[in-house]
Specification:
Largest sheet: 7 strands, mixed
Radius of gyration: 26 Å
Distance between the termini: 29 Å
Structural class: mainly beta
Helix content: under 10%
Shape: globular
Number of helices: 6
Oligomer: single chain
Strand content: over 45%
Low-confidence stretches: 283-289, 466-480
Length: about 575
């Protein structure tokens, strides 16, 4: 019981007058409505106080989110406002603003002085997981954006760009540096610009071809630029670059001993010929550790195609370690749409050990969701050291890319691909841009949860040269395609899993002492994709173990409840 009111268009319960309430039940969280900013602005009253999801959002703001602040955001359809409430009402305050695109999943609010209240609709960022950064595979049409922060990077002695012959600088000894490896798909002149976002950051920009070795920074150097007394940016203009060649951008500073250390955040652009693309990768930077020299290959037993209903691609990977050292690495997968604008990292990454002088072969099943449009998708498996906080900064030792085809793509789908647009409209910059922007709103949006968890079989390890022709069937598993998210979570998390055909299903959650705390799912389930919600509202923060049994298949894992 209590009173309600409306403040600047937003209907609300008056907290001071709330005298009593009771909880009817802990029902499932409703599925978020996927909309665009244009739809929100046109029909805001229909979405006020409802759960929505908007993908592909961008903002020019940088740094960390601040409480009680509005942020201008855009997507392919239009513009809108994202609001971070006061510090008591939001956990977003102080978190990093994504430098590239992001997805918002949360509630719509309103703040307006109009009467009637028909405008002022806002995206209210409250929970930490309301804003999730979108990470692409790393291939982007030019101009391609670069960004980073040298604060936690290693140090070296930079080149004195005025020395002839090339020599290192005594003033620049011990400065921090960051390396951005990349390749281009079109030969021509490229311009690289970096903008330093920290006051007093006296930055330098270097470009290397083939390899970069911090112990020998003069080797392979092809261009350099100084910002000339803190003009805030550096530029290497009209440098001729070739295809099938590894290049390295190195961002560094003037001196490590200046009053304001020459380090911190920066951003910039790589610009080139019309229709060109830049692939940011993790090329070798010279020297190299033993495990960085592992070789990798990827094979499919029955091809890389599924029908329109979705399904599984049955694959195995082969990793060769011809060194005398055991290597611990991580393997993860990624998928990208045909327009090369929307890529997702398929989690979780998996840790494996490849013994010295051995070949590891491991079979697995990759789920391809039925929810996405028919067409071709770039699927990449990478090996190296995965960065949980910034997947695009992961150290990639080796990778393999394959095209997974779903269903029978129509000509209309092919017209939405970057390669088609480039080949058809690449002769005219205005036509190319118009076609690209026209395709953008119609491009399939990929989500990690749709691709499901990659299920791995038992690794087969053999000495080099003694590997069998066929991978044993027991190296494969019948996947249940389980995903859990968010994880860690604050109030509740959702399990999603596949049931191949009608079967008994039991999902139980235990604490670390082995005590059963919840049974989110129990009973006979028909074939298909299912979900179950685990609520931690009445539980202590910590780690919990789940056991999911579908027929005779059993899977276990962990979830973390955070407060």
């Amino acid at each position: 019981t209590g009173t309600t009111s409306e403040f600047r268009g937003l209907f609300q319960i008056n907290n001071d007058d709330l005298t009593s309430y009771f909880i009817v039940g802990d029902g499932d969280v409703p599925e978020a409505q996927t909309i665009t900013l244009a739809e929100l602005m046109a029909n805001g009253e229909d979405y006020e106080a409802e759960l929505v999801e908007i993908e592909g959002l961008m903002t020019d703001a940088m740094g960390d989110f601040e409480s009680s602040t509005n942020y201008d955001v855009t997507d392919a359809s239009g513009a809108g406002t994202l609001r971070v409430p006061n510090a008591d009402d939001s956990m977003i305050d102080g978190t990093a603003i994504p430098s590239d695109g992001f997805t918002f999943t949360g509630v719509v609010g309103q703040f307006t002085f109009s009467d009637p209240a028909t405008d002022g609709y806002q995206l209210l960022a409250i929970a930490a997981e309301d804003i999730l950064a979108d990470f692409g595979l790393g291939t982007f049409p030019v101009p391609a954006r670069i960004s980073g922060d040298t604060s936690d990077d290693p140090t070296y002695a930079r080149v004195d760009i005025f020395a002839d012959p090339c020599a290192t600088s005594s003033t620049g000894n011990g400065v921090k540096y960051e390396v951005i490896p990349f390749m281009v798909d079109t030969a021509g002149d490229y311009t690289i610009t970096t903008n330093y976002l920290v006051a007093g950051f006296d930055g330098f920009l270097f470009l290397y071809e083939g390899a970069f070795n911090p112990d020998d920074p003069c080797a392979n150097l092809i261009a350099a630029s100084d910002d000339f007394n803190d003009t805030s940016d550096s530029q290497i203009a009209d440098e001729s670059l070739m295809t099938e060649t590894q290049y390295f951008i190195v961002v560094t500073g003037f001196s490590a001993t200046s009053t304001t250390p020459d380090e911190g955040e920066y951003d910039g652009l790589v610009e080139g010929p019309m229709g060109a693309s830049v692939t940011f990768n993790e090329g070798m930077t010279g020297g190299g550790e033993t495990c960085e020299d592992l070789a990798m290959d990827l094979f499919a037993y029955d091809g890389y195609a599924v029908d329109s209903e979705g399904g599984f691609v049955r694959m195995f990977m082969e990793i060769t370690n011809d060194s005398d050292e055991d290597c611990d690495v991580q393997v993860w997968g990624m998928s990208m749409d045909a327009l090369l604008t929307n890529g997702v990292f398929i989690r979780p990454r998996r840790s494996i050990t490849v013994p010295a002088n051995s070949i590891l072969r491991q079979g697995y099943n990759q789920r391809v969701p039925g929810e996405i449009a028919d067409g071709d998708y770039e699927y990449t498996v990478s090996m190296g050291v995965y960065d949980d906080d910034a997947p695009m900064d992961s150290d990639i030792y080796a990778s393999q890319m394959r095209t997974i085809s779903k269903g029978a793509p129509t000509l209309g789908f092919n017209e939405l691909s970057y390669e088609y647009i480039k080949a058809t409209y690449g002769h005219d910059e205005a036509e190319f841009k118009a076609a690209f922007l026209a395709a953008l709103p119609h491009t399939t949006v990929l989500k990690p949860k749709d691709w499901g968890t990659v299920e791995h079989g038992t690794p087969q390890i053999s000495p080099i040269g003694v590997i069998s022709e066929e991978l044993p069937m027991e190296t494969f598993v019948v996947t249940v395609g389980t995903t859990v998210g968010p994880n860690p979570f604050r109030d509740a998390t959702t399990f999603q899993f596949d049931v191949p055909e009608e079967a008994a299903v039991s999902l139980q959650v235990f604490d670390v002492l082995g005590r059963l705390v919840a049974t989110p799912a129990e009973g006979t389930f028909p074939g298909g994709r299912h979900s179950a919600v685990f609520s931690g509202r009445d539980l202590q923060a910590g780690t919990y173990v789940y056991r999911l049994q579908i027929g005779s298949t059993v899977e276990t894992g962990r979830v973390t409840l955070a407060r």
